[in-house]
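Sequence in, structure out. Go.
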Amino acid sequence: MCAAAASLNAAVTAGHPRLLGDRQRLQQLARQRSQAYERMARVAREQAESDPARVISRALVCAIEQDGSLGRRAVQEVLALIEGPIKKGHTPFGHDLALCALVYDLCYDYWTPPQRQAFHDYVNRTVDANIQSETHVFHNGWYGYKHWGIGLACYAAYEENERAPGILRALEEDWRQRAAPALELAGAGGGWAEGYYIHYWLYEWLWFCEAARFCEGRDYYADAPDFFRNRAVASMFEMYPGIGIYGSRRPLPLGDGGGRVFGGDRDKALSARRILVNHFGDDPAHQAVHAFNETTPRCSVGAYAYQDFLWRDSTVKAADLSAFKLSHYSRGAGRVYARSGWDEEATYFLFTCGDRFTAHQHLDAGHFLIFKHEELAGDGGHYDDFGSPHDVNYHLRSIAHNTILVHDPQEIWPAIRAGEVTGNDGGQAHDWPHHNGAVSDPQQWQRQRALYDIADIVACQDHGSYLYVAGDCSRAYSAKKLKLFTRQIVFLRPGTFVVFDRVVATDPGFRKTWLLQAMKPPRQEKNYLVVTNGQGRLFVQTLLPERPEIRCVSGPDLYRYGGKAYPPRRDTGPAPACRIEVACPTAARADVFLHVLTATDADVDTVEPAVLQKGDGKIAVRIGGVKITFFPDRISGYIEIDGQRRDLAAGAP
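Output:
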């Protein structure tokens, strides 16, 4: 940390507890949220092996009931961290700091003076050891590994650890100068380029933000309003429809991670939304989020009852969720989320076409997801390890996503994530100064914008019966092989997607391939492929190119291309089992792809056939009473529904 900055706010509240409000507030919560408190108290008094959730529960019950036995037990549990080795680097030392800070504050009376001094020394030595750790503000580490724990530890011992005020002010200055601008740049609209990872780091940072409000009235949310005022809505849209195992909701697979199997990250996402709903509870959009949250009223992990106790405020006004908007645009991350409705059987759609910020992103400009009961068009590969052969040659590469490949036989890629890249998949480029493809802060991003500003959503129009999105992905590829790649998608609710792609290569000999990551191998029907996964089904109709070359790659060949295989080291959960490849049959500089994808229940046997219509320099498709027309020379077109015409045009979303 740098030298102490001048205090920017009012004095920190005296006395303990204070990180979550005073004892009277916590006791009042125990009366108001009695069922959650009773569950938390049972967890607190269990003799099970110590873990953070049980330690936090014991500390809270100690503070509320002034139970010395629980307080002394919690102190002894965190002393193992305080007296242990100092953690450094990409390790969750922030979590350890936060746990010790909570016990210090909530169980203050049960620490001996030498133990308190040991805590102060532990905090100071950890801070000193990690001055250069986790400094990238676009990466999860700044918030989830580091600063939330440092901040809680300094608030907990503010008047007792003489270094605490200076450390806290230095944190605040770094936040104001680098981190808050990062959230406003990459998080405008509430999404986050890092994808899935936000579901487990944001919760901790919000906890710190709440502690700052309780301790000194500091409103960190006000420094990044475009992110925080939209984050709860974006998070709601980042959950697939349907309530799954243990009453939880599954987050989208975006970037690394993905939440494919059940874990506590689902409860963190719920708790993060709750914190924001409590803060912005007068806003109608947050009241809709509250209604959504209340469909899963309890954390799915039993030991996380303390999260229900702290953050579930059932007195917030709930809006009519069924009347809420069906799509959301996060311009910072370049993502459009959409649903057919707010019922649990809804069809779900995501389109991503944004810029580069952090190492956990993939080479996936133009990628989309489709979900109906289950994933139908998904995100390929497994996050088996950061920088593994599978990771750098398949999982993060374009070949594992629903986008376009343009194969230049001479193209090579540098190492990424410190992993050796040996595969030429024909996908998007990566040639950034940092080996992880990450940028340190907004200032660097602006200085090197030409490297990181790689894709744009250029249209997003939701008219209820349909959604129109368009993206320009051209700059995501090497300029040596590609001049243009634009994608236009019309989502005809409830479940039909028209995907129109224009691709212009620098050399007519560069093979162009359209990709779809199918969750199950499809069966071939006369005019379409049919992908069935659980109770959901996806019909895939290829209208252009004419006489397409279609391959379905599955089994042992799924992770093989260019004569080399890149299988994952481990299975991280349900992943696409087949890669559908649609290629142009003849060499040309410019080609178009036109597909109609229809998501249905698995018991649907046929869908309305899509009819291609060409002429007058236009390309049109008719599906029942709907006709959609595109222009092959620009991002534009129009839609006709029952004789009513409306333009599809690029413009500010």
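Check: Confidence is low (pLDDT under 50) at residues 1-9. The two ends are 41 Å apart (CA to CA).
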